Every structure is written in C-alpha cells, then in structure tokens.
Amino acid sequence: MSATTALHLAAEIGGPPHYDAPHYTALAQLAERGTLDFVTLGDSFARPGLDALAVFSRVAPATRRIGLVPTVTTTHTEPFHVSSAVATLDWVSRGRAGWSAEVSTTGAEARLFGRRPAAPAADLWREAADTAEVGARLWDSWEDDAEIRDVATGRFIDRAKLHYVDFEGATFTVRGPAIVPRPPQGHPVTVIDGTGGPSQDAAARHADVVLVRATTPEQAAGIRAEVRRRAATYGRDPDALRVLVALTVDLGDAETVPEPGPESGPRLAARGSYYRGGPVDLAELIGQWHRGGAVDGFHLTPITPARDLERIVNGTVALLQHRSLFRTFYPGGTLREHLGLARPANRYALAEGRA
Q: In which region does residue 53 sit, left (phi positive, over 0), alpha (psi from -120 to 50) or beta (all else)?
C-alpha cells in the first residue's frame, strides 16, 4: 500500500480520570501491539485529571513506536510554552510526538486563570491557528545542525543558525528563538478537529491530521474533499493531509446478522458518529469506508477503554491485518513515518540556501 492509500488508525486512551501512570502506559502498549499510528489523551481545563502532555512524557520511555498525541489547550496558555512542551515530548519519545489543538470557551475556565474573560469560539480558533504558526516557526528557529558542542573552542551553538521568529498575532507576540533544539521530526504532528465551524480554517491551514465527524461514507468523503480544497487555497499540498473519521465505539454488543441488499453491512447508530456492536462489524465498517476512498482512516474513542481497546486490537485490527487492509509492523520510528508524511524542511535554512 502506498502512503496515500494506506489505512491509518488511532485511538483515544482517556476516559474517567486515573491518577496512576501504569494505567495509561498499559493502554498505550496495547495500542502499540496493534501497530496503531498514534494514541490520543484528551485534556480540558473544564474537568479534573492529570495533564495529558505530562502523562505522555511518562508513557514515552515505556513505548517504542506508537505516536503520542496529547490534547493541548491554546487558550490561557503561552504559545512559547506550548511549543517548548511539545518539542520536549518529541525529544523524549524520539520523534513520536504530536499535539491535538483545542480551545477553552467557558467563563468558568477563564476564571481559573483570571487573566482575561471568555471569548467567542471563532476568535479562540484564530488564536489557536496563530499558536500553530508560531510553534512551527519556533521549531524551525534552530537549524538541525545549530549545535556545535566544540569543547576545544568552547562553542556550543552556531549563532548564524539560530533565528528570531518575530511573530505578531492578534493576542500575542513572540520574538524567539526557541529554547529547545529543533525536534527530531522537524515539526511534531499537528492534529485538529476540522469537521466544521471555526476550527475548520485552522485545520486547513496547519493540521497534518484532520479529524472529522460523519455518519455516512458519502458525507465523510465530502468533508474530506472540502478540507483538502481549503488546504490547497492556502498553498498546501492536499496529499500531505491525513483525514480521519472520529468515531466513538462501544464494543460491548454481539455482532449483527448481515441483511441482504445493497444497503447491507454495519451502520452507525442513530446518535451519529457512534458505533455499537462487535469488533468484526467494526472492521467491516472501516474496510468499506476506506476502500471507497471516503477517508484516510479512523480515530476511535472507546466507551470503555480497558475493554474496548483490547477488542479493537485483538479483534478489529487483527481482522484488518488478516485481510491485508492494515499493516502488521511499523514502517519507521517516527509518527510522521507512520503517517507517510515527509519531515518538513527548515524555513530559515531554505531562505538562506542551506536546505
């Protein structure tokens, strides 16, 4: 399978808050045994729980290949700190980091910080897009070979290969350069929910992976086409995006009995992007949607992570692998390699003819 036709699978490992690292480590290791592209861990200022970025920094040494994508809320947080934290996760995971951008819209969350009132979602997603842009610039602010580490001369850094980003947005300015060297992936993978509304523009501009919600393959294909079209208007290569359907799954039920006719096959429940059934039917649904070219893959959120992720890996994924629809080993060591995405060139080195 080529990079443009390969099936990509990811899973959420959150749920009710847990305060022990082994819980999350075990789920990530289980997903890794199924060769999933990445796992996500949701986070929000609106609920109690551990910080997702910090949790994945703990999970990273206990895993070897799977990508780690925590939710990072860009509202009420400093873009420079966001960039540094995500770059650090990429270093400690040896190139397996991503981040899922999210915003905070409620007054209650704003009062936790006391710095500014709640703002409309459209304004916050413009700020999130600015955070993604400045993050990419900061990751490029060190060229790959900026570190010299020459003991004899006492030179640690080639200052000609450090760059000020001088970014000015509507709500913040960042001069740079970064304090963390350029991450192993160049740019850790950016994930944004781009189904519609104010987040879709940020996804088209900056996301490597776009999550969408759809109830039919035709609807998913239409959303995917629109996201790719919008990305092209911003000068991006649409083939450098991966569009995954976000699907909540409940694998506590038995398999369905197929019904004859053109509409046969597993369907989503009436609640929309929600699947309830067995792992075999889920494999059928994934295979049908992907073979039809509707999506690049699926991001699965188990209703009961400990139960359903095991059934996804040992049931759904195993069947997809048996049918040669999903890989049986990782193609490389980084999340970008799993997704078939190139490592971005450094914009500053390009401008000065060094890349």
A: alpha
pLDDT, residue 268, reads 62
Nearest partner of 164 among 80, 75, 74, judged by Cα: 80
Residue of 338, 341, 343 whose CA lies nearest to 8:
338
Question: Which spans in 141-237 are helix H?
Answer: 199-206, 217-233
For the cut 80, the answer to whether the pLDDT of residue 36 exceeds it is yes
Q: Is 310 in contact with 27 (CB distance < 8 Å)?
A: no
Percentage of the chain modeled with pLDDT above 70: 94
How large is the greatest C-alpha to C-alpha distance in the chain, in angstroms? 77
What distance, in Å, lies between the first and last C-alpha atoms of the chain? 30
Going from the C-alpha of 287 to that of each of 51, 104, 269, 302, 329, the distances in angstroms are 34, 35, 18, 18, 19
Tell me the three-class secondary structure of 238-266, residue by residue.
Answer: HHHCEEEEEEEEECCCCCCCCCCCCCCCC
Per-residue model confidence (pLDDT) at position 148:
86
Q: What are phi and psi of 173, to 5 degrees?
A: -130, 145
DSSP states of 3-71: TTT--EEEEE---S----HHHHHHHHHHHHHTT-SEEEE---TTS----HHHHHHHHGGG-SS-EEEEE
DSSP class of 340:
T
* pTM for this model (two decimals): 0.93
Residue 61 and residue 92: Cα distance in Å, rounded? 7
Q: How many C-beta neighbours within 10 Å does residue 291 have?
A: 12
CA gap 116, 335 in Å, rounded: 36
Mean pLDDT confidence for 219-236: 95
